[in-house]
Structures are given as C-alpha cells and as structure tokens.
C-alpha cells in the first residue's frame, strides 16, 4: 500500500494502497480512493422496539408501521425458520424506512461493494433494511423476503467466525439460489414468477442465469424452488439448504438431496413449466412480434408506465434502469420515437423505486412526470417539442404510487404514503397542497378520474364500502391477493365508496372509457388480462386471453386501440392491439390460480369458523373499529387526523379477540417439527419499547493479506473495519509488517462520521522505513507521522469535495553505530521536520461494477496538497495530481478501459515521481541511477534522504522501477479487456480460475521530467549540460532521444490461490526501438 501512502491525501488506505478499491476502505484496488456518496436530506431520529426474536428500528413517522411489522414478523418466524431449516444465532435487527427514497440515504453498504485481491473475511450481520413499499399488502411480503434472505445468507456464509473464515475460500453462490428461495418463502407461486418461468422455457436458446438481470434471476430462482416444492415436497427445501451449507455447492446439494443428476433436475424444471405452457395455450394466445412497437433496450432496463394522450396521437412511456430513467414519446402516426425527459441516477448497490416516474397528460402536448428528487416528490410539466419545464413540489407525501391529472390540469388525484400509511389524496396544483380522500389502513392503488365528473376510481383491498371503517390492525389480516375496484364522489361529503367488482383476485389499473365502461386488469384466471366492467348492469367480462400477463395498459379512445406492456424473451415490450380484436372471452384457470383459489377459500372457511367460535369477541371488536361519523378532513395539517388517534386509543380493548385466536394457532403446532416446537418452547411474545437507538460497534470485515512493497518487498497486511449498525460511524485500522521484521512497519487508524450531510473523518498514519546496507555499518530509519482531520461535501451521489487539513512530521535517524564511537563535532544524526498542510480533492465516480475487474463509467480525482514548514528542518512543497479513468462496454464480453495520470511536485523542495514497473510486482527490479539524476534510494552516512517518504512510484509496464524520474509525470494507458466467462455458452462455471479469467491487450506511454517538459524538442531526457569545475566553459549535448517510454503487450487476470493475480507480457518501446519482452507477475486490479 505504501505507494498509495505516498499520496498524503488518501484517507482510508494506510496499509495496502496498491489495492485501493474505489468503493471502500476495506477493499483496495488502485492507488486512488474513489467511491460514490450517500446524501442525507433529513435527520433520522432512530428508536426501536424489541420482541423475542427481533429488534425493529424506526424513525419519525414510522412507529405504527414498526408495531405492525414486529408483530407480523413474530407470527411468521416459525414458518420461515421451519421452511428453510435454520434458526438464527441472535435477534434479527430490522431497520424500517418510510420510503425507498429515504432508504437510499442510508450509509449501509456505501463503502463496500467491490472486490479485494484476497484474504478478506466479511462478517455476516443479522440485520436487514426494509423500505415501506407503498402499501401494506406488498410490504408484509417484502418483510418476509428480506428476513428469509438474511437467514439464508447467515446459513451459507456463517453465523460464527469459523464459518465466516471458511466461506471466504468457497465459491460464490449464484443469485438465483439465495434470492429465489427467499422469494418463494415470501411470495410463493405468484403470477410474476409464473410468467417469467413460462417465457424463459419457451426460448430456443435461453441465456444463462448469470447473463440475466437480478430481477430475472430472482424470479427464475423462485420458480426452481417452487418446482421443488410442487414435485418433491416442501421439506426438501430445508434439506437442500442444509446440505448446501456443508458442501458449499448448490448443484451438488440439489442432486444429492433429490437423488437425480443436476442436469436431469434442470430438464425436469423446464418440462414442468413447458407442460404448463401447453395446457395454458389451449385457451390463451401469444401475440405476434409484429405487434410490438417498442421495447427495453438492455437486460437491466424495464418499461414502467405508458399513457396515450387524449387524442391518441402520442404515446408516452418510461424506461427504467436501476434508478435512471427516460421518458420517451412515440408519434403514433409516423412511429418516430423521441426522448422527452431524462432523470434519476443509476444505482446497482441500492434498492430503487421502479414505480417512478409516473405519467399523466395535462393536455394534448403537455405531459406531467412525477418523480422523487433531492428529498421530495415533484411533478415536472414538460411540453413536447419545447425546451424547458416547470417543476412543482408535492408536499407531505413520502411516496406516490399513482397519479392522474383531471382534465384541465388544475386538480390531480394520487395514491401515496403519509406517516407509513397508503391512502388516496387530491393535489391542488395552483395551491401546491394536498387534501385527503381516504383515511384508513386499507391499501389504495391506481387512482384515476371518471370522464367529465368529480368521481375518482381506484383499486383497494377494503372489503366494505364504509368510509368509517379503520381497517386491519395487524399485517397478517391485510389481504394481498384480493383487490377490487371502488369509486368515490368528491362532491358528496361523507359518501360511501362505490364497490364495482367483487372477486377473489387482484384487479388493478382501472381506465374509464366513459361513465359506463371501465377497463381494468385482473388475474382472476391466473394471468393478468384485460377485463371490462359495465356500471349499468354491474357485469364484468374477460376481454383478452394473452398467455403472458399484462403489466400495464392504456387506451386510445379516438382510434379504438390499446397499448400494453408484456414480456418477450425475459424483456419488457410494448404491444399495440385494436380494441376491436378484444372481445368477451372465457379462459380456464391456470394451475397456479387453481392452487391459489383453494388456499383463499380455505382461509375464508377458517375465518368463518373462527367467527362462529368468537361471536362475542368479534362483536366487541366491530364496535371498536366502527368510528362515529366525523367531519370530513379537508387537508393534511399537523394533528388533523383525529380518527386515527381515536381508534388507536381503543386498541387495548381487542385483547379478547387476540386471546380467542390463540386456540387455532396452537392447533397448527401439531404439524410443526420437533425442532420448531423446541426452539419456541415457553416463549411468550412480548414487545418492549420504544428505546432510543445508541450506536454499537460490530466487526464488518477482516483482511489478512500480503503486500509486495517497492522498498520493503513482501509484507504482511492486517486490517479490520468496524462500524455501528447503520454504518454512520466507521472505524478502520490496520498494520503492515515486512516478513523480515527489519525494514520498518506501517500503522493506521481512521474514524469516519457519515450521519450528517457533511461527512467528517479523522485519521492517524505512521510509516517507518529502515534502510540498511548489510555489507557496511550504514543504517538509517525514516519515520512519518500524520494526523488528519477532514470533511467531505457531497454534491450528488457521484460528486464530492474533500477538504483535509493535517499535521505531518518526518524524522530521520542515522543508526550507523560508528557515529556513536567517532562522531564529528557538531554533526547531528537525527532531524525532525514538521509540516502543516491542506489537502483538497474533487472526486467524481459514476462507475458501475459488473464483475471482477469489470467496470462501466468514469472515475476521476483532482487533488491539490500543500505542505508548509513549521520548523527550520522543514522545507515546504506542494503537489497537484489528476487521475482519470474511463470504462466502456463495447459489446458482449468486450470492454475498453483507459487511464490518464498527471502529477506535479512544486515548491522549494519538490519530490520525485519514479516511473516504471507495476504495483505489487513479484521479483521486481530497479533501474540504476545514471548521470546527474538524484538517487532516490541513496543510503549514505549523515545524508538525510527523507524524500523517500514522499517519492511516488508510477506504473508503466515493461520497465523497471525508476526508469525515468522527475518532479512531473504524465502517463496514458489503454486496455482491451475480454472476460472469458462472458463468452462461455450456457452453463455457469464453478471454477474460480475460469470464472475470473480475463485476457487483455494493452498500450502504455509515459514520461517524467524535472525542468524541461517532454513535449519540448530539448528536454530533460535528451539534453545534458556538461560543466567542468574551474572552467569558464560549459556545453550542452542533445542526443535527440525520444523522451516518451512506451510499451505494448498482452496480459491475463484471474483468481489464483485466493488472490487476484496479474500476468503481463510487455514489449518496451524506448527511443523508437522495440526491446525484448518482459514478463511481470503481480497482484491487484486495474492498470
């Protein structure tokens, strides 16, 4: 790392700079530390509730959600642990966020989503972060998914330190395995998974899972676990997971548990969904590709929403890619497509809200775009074909699920979240305020207006049309598979909700063609299709029979056509169909829907039995939830929701209901395993709190690796990183000790405070170099101590400014013992120099990590650092540096990477850049110093060579260290990288060597100089001044040699013996001559 430590401005790298990774101080890849930022737009005042198995943390506005969550998690705890066959080692910490956007302000994971060269052990933590998804129905499933995933990861990677160290050397587990089983436990056999699996098995040459998006891996993995449960039984899920925990191989665990070869198992999975396709296609149809008018352009992008304008001449839709989005508009006459608006930030390491942006037309050519930006929800009014836009804030609402302008654009309806609860609201555009429509704990979705009226239309899981029913108190009572359509008349105060449909399915996306005809989506038969409800006769009819579900649709009434989003080859596409081709039809229920219907009916039957047994207690409960009529609340003013307070004050009266419900729960225990009963013996669920959150430190990771230092050769590196649960406080320390124990050592300790908008850090670093000549008595020690206090000002997730004042001290000690015996008078064998300095850096990083040593995007760091003298032994100097890297994906499996590095030392005592060699070079060599150049490695009695603490080695392949030197350096490098794994056919390789193998071609060029630039015809390299002492004459010799060192060659990168290793064969090109190839073996990433 020590080259990196010669950059005084580096903050988190004190022990292994040759490995400095841009995302973290725990994992280093290059000398520069880049990394993205998390920006805090609000202060999070955390508190927590505690139960038998969980600690649920929340902040302002989330207490009611936290109470619901901890109760629901306890009710699901036995089912989840029994299904996967694993019990957690400790209580699970759940951190709840009121919205996905607020979760993106979390610091968890901001410093650690890249790779180390080896030797890193990550500590598995029993905690998860969950954002409120916008409604209770999906949120309770998200809770179970995240809890299950945490358990499976703890199961695989280890809940104790021995298992954690063991997992360091095991092969990485594929995404489909962990995410898939977690999704199956949480969601079961749902329609999204069913559509994805059936679409995948229809493809003639499907891509391997590792080439698909994370969402596709989750859904396909979920379908595999569903196949196991349906074919072999649910108990085999836990058997497979526990065997995988031992053998650390998912394929072996599946084949040994089920008794079939893994290849045959996968063929059986494909046959399972293929046969389902054959059955479904008997009454369903698949649209021809000729009706596709647009589609997603990459495997990671999805199409979110689409809207026709009122005239049907324009179709707007959104393309979403991991947080970054585009709003595109199609001219339906010419079919030309344009990008109307761009927004968002692409994020891979964070959860993103794929529901944003929302679209609603204001008039024929003006589109409203609802999104979340800089801590608030906004609607951007953008006119097609015109420059500029108007941005309006939407107050109070933390998350918006649906939005639609009323004709004229002065009023809009929306469904969104306030204080952790989803309701319907009106948005008064001119005033910039909102007014409440609903006020209960039911979920409201997909709101719109009936044409030419003040009636809103929406989807909800409420079972009653009463306005004054509070709704379910517990999440387990929230229906996630029964949503019906409702209306509400804004002109009638205290009116009831008009219930339009009454089915046991999810009905969504209602669009009123007129006051009588309402089109909507329903999964009543198992696949999301278009239905038509006529208000006059209250009859609903199925109107389409597409074999793959429709995600969203929009209607063009003028041209009598429909556009909708569906799936083709695991990608989203937009179809266009005439409404004339959509007519009343009936299809049979899919196998998935048949099982779901049986489960729903069984649950209804169970509740009816409970109703019979608990008539008295249920009657009391109804009296509690029925709230007397209250005046309609017009706006969301603080403290205005009195009905909520009224209901919650009486919740204690429902204890009799809970008591009665204990009987059937205990009956279910008869079918539970002995392990589950034993683990939960004698436990009575009690909830304590709220308590204030206090930071408690835990170990994040430990690194035990080695460094090949340019001066001290092989050295042992030890690093440890600790942080509190939320990673607002970080502590990073380490030491580096040469294996000969006689060349010095390094020690560093760093603390970071990341909770506020401005990040604060403090760091101490000590470096000690011992130079010794074994043939003489010469021996010198050079010490550097640095105390640094800094602040980082993030302007965006990509850009930040760092300012770090520091105090630095160097100390030179001549250890030649002859000086003790015969030291000349007045000679001092020890000197101390003190400096006061300031480091200022601008860091830009929008890169994305796509695999080992695979990046896309740009990284740049501009730095100025000054050292001002504080005592007579110090001489001031300064430094300016620029390191810019760009990574570009050319095509599948082909990447271009380029780097430009410039550095310059100035001041009265400029230091040197030593050009040549590579980081962590085994069997490295130094170039001998010639002519009048200073020797940076000079060891001479009574010679203070403290510059050795600041001189920096700069990479240039094909050359030895210090081939050129100077106070200024400039290098350019280019690489064509070919990761082999991306060229392999369909199977995912298990070999770590093959999986990480890359071939590359490269070209490097660079030069270094002290005074005359290499861009001049006469420069430091080709010009030498000859001065004869005592003579009045001097001469200048110019040999016209090329001042630029170049090299070209090929290389290989892979994981070898647990370390990411580099092999480069470089042909040096010096003074226009191609030299003999030089083989350089090293460890590390990038250039």
UniProtKB/TrEMBL annotation:
It comes from the Bacteria. It comes from Roseivirga seohaensis. This is Bacterial surface antigen (D15) domain-containing protein.
């Amino acid at each position: 790392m020590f080259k990196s430590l010669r950059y005084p401005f580096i903050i988190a790298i004190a022990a292994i700079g040759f490995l400095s990774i841009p995302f973290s101080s725990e994992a280093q890849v290059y000398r520069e530390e880049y990394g993205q930022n998390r920006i805090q737009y609000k202060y999070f005042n955390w508190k927590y509730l505690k139960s038998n198995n969980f600690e649920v943390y929340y902040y302002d506005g989330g207490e009611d959600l936290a109470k619901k969550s901890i109760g629901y998690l306890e009710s699901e705890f036995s089912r989840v642990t029994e299904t996967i066959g694993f019990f957690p080692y400790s209580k699970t910490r759940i951190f709840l966020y009121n919205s996905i956007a607020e979760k993106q302000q979390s610091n968890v994971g901001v410093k650690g989503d890249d790779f180390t060269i080896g030797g890193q052990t990550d500590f598995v933590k029993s905690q998860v972060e969950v954002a409120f998804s916008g409604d209770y129905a999906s949120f309770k499933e998200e809770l179970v998914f995240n809890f299950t995933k945490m358990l499976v990861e703890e199961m695989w990677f280890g809940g104790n330190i021995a298992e954690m160290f063991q997992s360091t050397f095991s092969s990485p587990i594929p995404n489909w395995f962990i995410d898939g089983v977690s999704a199956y436990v949480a969601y079961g056999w749902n329609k999204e998974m069913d559509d994805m699996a059936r679409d995948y098995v229809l493809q003639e040459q499907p891509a391997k899972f590792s080439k698909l998006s994370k969402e596709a891996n989750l859904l396909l993995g979920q379908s595999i676990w569903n196949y196991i449960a349906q074919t072999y039984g649910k108990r085999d899920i836990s058997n497979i997971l526990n065997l995988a925990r031992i053998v650390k191989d998912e394929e072996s665990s599946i084949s040994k548990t089920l008794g079939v070869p893994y290849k045959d198992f996968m063929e059986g999975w494909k046959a399972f969904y293929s046969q389902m396709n054959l059955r479904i296609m008997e009454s369903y149809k698949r649209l021809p590709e000729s009706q596709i008018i647009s589609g997603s352009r990459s495997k990671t992008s999805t199409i979110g929403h689409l809207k026709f304008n009122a005239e049907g001449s324009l179709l707007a839709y959104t393309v979403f890619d991991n947080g970054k989005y585009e709003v595109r508009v199609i001219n339906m006459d010419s079919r030309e497509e344009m990008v109307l608006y761009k927004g968002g930030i692409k994020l891979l390491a964070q959860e993103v809200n794929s529901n944003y942006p929302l679209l609603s037309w204001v008039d024929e050519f003006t589109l409203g775009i609802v999104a979340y930006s800089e801590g608030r929800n906004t609607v951007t009014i953008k006119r097609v074909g015109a420059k500029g836009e108007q941005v309006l804030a939407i107050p109070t609402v933390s998350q918006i699920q649906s939005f639609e302008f009323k004709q004229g654009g002065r009023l809009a309806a929306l469904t969104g979240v306030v204080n952790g609860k989803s309701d319907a609201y009106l948005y008064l555009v001119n005033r910039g305020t909102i007014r409440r429509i609903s006020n209960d704990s039911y979920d409201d979705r997909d709101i719109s207006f009936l044409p030419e009226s003040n009636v809103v239309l929406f989807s909800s899981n409420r079972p009653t049309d009463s306005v004054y029913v509070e709704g379910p108190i517990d999440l387990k009572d929230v229906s996630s598979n029964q949503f019906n359509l409702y209306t509400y008349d804004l002109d009638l105060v205290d009116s009831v909700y008009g219930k339009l449909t009454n089915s046991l399915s999810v009905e969504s996306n209602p669009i009123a063609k007129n006051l009588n005809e309402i089109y909507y989506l329903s999964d009543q038969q198992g696949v999301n299709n278009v239905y038509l409800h006529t208000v006059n006769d209250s009859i609903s009819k199925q109107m389409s029979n597409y074999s793959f579900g429709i995600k969203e649709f929009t209607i063009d009434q003028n041209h009598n056509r429909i556009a909708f989003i569906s799936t083709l080859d695991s990608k989203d596409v937009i179809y266009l169909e005439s409404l004339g081709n959509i007519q009343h039809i009936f299809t049979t229920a899919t196998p998935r829907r048949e099982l779901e219907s049986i489960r729903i009916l069984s649950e209804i039957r169970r509740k009816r039995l409970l109703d019979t047994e608990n008539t008295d207690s249920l009657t009391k409960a109804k009296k509690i939830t029925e709230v007397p009529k209250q005046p309609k609340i017009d706006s969301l003013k603080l403290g205005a929701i009195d009905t909520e307070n009224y209901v919650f004050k009486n919740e204690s009266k429902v204890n009799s209901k809970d008591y009665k419900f204990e009987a059937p729960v205990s009956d279910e225990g008869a079918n539970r395993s002995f392990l589950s009963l034993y683990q939960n013996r004698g436990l009575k669920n009690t909830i304590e709190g709220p308590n204030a959150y206090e930071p408690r430190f835990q170990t994040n990771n430990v690194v035990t690796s080695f460094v090949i230092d340019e001066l001290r050769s092989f050295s042992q590196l030890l690093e440890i990183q600790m942080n509190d649960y939320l990673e607002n406080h970080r502590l990073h320390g380490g030491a580096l000790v040469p294996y000969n124990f006689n060349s010095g050592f390094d020690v560093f300790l760093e603390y970071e405070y990341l909770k506020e908008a401005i990040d604060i850090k403090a760091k101490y670093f000590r470096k000690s170099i011992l130079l010794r000549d074994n043939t003489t008595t010469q021996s010198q020690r050079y010490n550097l101590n640095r105390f640094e206090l800094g602040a980082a000002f993030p302007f965006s997730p990509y850009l930040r400014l760092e300012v770090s004042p520091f105090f630095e001290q160097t100390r030179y000690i001549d250890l030649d013992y002859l000086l003790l015996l015969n030291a000349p008078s007045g000679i001092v064998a020890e000197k101390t120099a003190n400096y006061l300095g300031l480091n200022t850096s601008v860091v830009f990083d929008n890169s994305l990590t796509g695999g080992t040593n695979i990046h896309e995007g740009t990284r740049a760091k501009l730095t100025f650092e000054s050292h001002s003298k504080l005592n007579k032994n110090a001489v001031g100097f300064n430094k300016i540096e620029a390191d810019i890297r760009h990574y570009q994906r050319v095509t599948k499996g082909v990447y271009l990477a380029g780097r430009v590095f410039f550095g310059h030392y100035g001041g009265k005592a400029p230091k040197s850049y030593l050009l040549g060699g590579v980081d962590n070079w085994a069997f490295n060599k130094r170039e001998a110093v010639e002519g009048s150049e200073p020797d940076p490695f000079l060891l001479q009695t009574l010679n203070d060579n403290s510059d050795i603490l600041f001189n920096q080695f700069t990479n240039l392949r094909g050359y030895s260290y210090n081939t050129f030197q100077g106070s200024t350096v400039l290098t350019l490098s280019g690489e064509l990288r070919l990761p082999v794994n991306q060229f392999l056919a369909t199977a995912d390789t298990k070999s770590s060597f093959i999986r990480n193998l890359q071939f590359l071609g490269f070209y490097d060029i660079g030069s270094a100089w002290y005074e005359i630039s290499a861009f001049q015809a006469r420069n430091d390299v080709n010009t030498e001044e000859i001065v004869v002492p005592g003579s009045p004459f001097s001469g200048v010799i110019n040999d016209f040699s090329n001042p630029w060192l170049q090299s070209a060659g090929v290389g290989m990168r892979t994981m070898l013996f647990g370390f990411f290793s580099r092999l480069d064969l470089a042909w040096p090109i010096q003074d226009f001559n191609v030299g003999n190839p030089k083989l350089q073996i090293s460890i590390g990433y990038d250039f």
